[in-house]
Specification:
This protein is mainly beta. The protein has a single domain, classed as Metal Binding Protein, Guanine Nucleotide Exchange Factor, Chain A. Helix content is 8%, strand content 35%. The protein has a 5-stranded antiparallel beta sheet with strand order 4-9-8-7-6, with no helix packed on it. Strands 1-2-5 form a 3-stranded antiparallel beta sheet, with no helix packed on it. A hairpin with a 6-residue loop joins strand 7 and strand 8. The chain is globular and about 35 Å long. The protein starts with a strand and ends with a helix.
């Protein structure tokens, strides 16, 4: 099990599973400005420990992705997103949860390998 929280602790979560062998770095305007490193999981693996009401949500462009963040400290926490493939394809129904790996407890994201997707040109 993986646990994590935002800087102030208002948004806390746990994940049934391990940290992926490679994280994902997206080059889209939103992810690159926030410095996100994503760890992707199936929705049933992700559990908020804190109340959902502690989240704020930002939706942009297609409005298909809920980018959640802590309204107190501003940390991007997780996103509920279509299960986009590296080429941008989506089956129209399958979703996934992208968790900000920088928030995992006892984890140094800078030392972890990552895969980069060209979100700047895909979305």
């Amino acid at each position: 099990m993986v646990t994590g929280k935002c800087h102030c602790g208002q948004v806390e979560f746990k994940v049934d599973g391990d940290i992926p062998e490679k994280l994902t770095r997206c080059t889209c305007s939103f992810c690159s400005k926030r410095g996100m490193l994503w760890a992707y999981y199936q929705p049933h693996q992700f559990h908020l420990v804190s109340p959902k009401s502690n989240d704020a949500i930002y939706r942009w462009n297609s409005k298909m992705v809920d980018h959640c963040f802590c309204p107190t400290c501003g940390c991007g926490t997780y996103s509920d997103t279509p299960d986009f493939q590296p080429n941008g394809a989506w089956d129209g129904k399958t979703r996934r949860i992208g968790v900000n790996a920088r928030l995992f407890d006892h984890f140094i994201a800078a030392n972890h390998p990552f895969f980069e997707i060209d979100g700047k040109n895909l979305w």
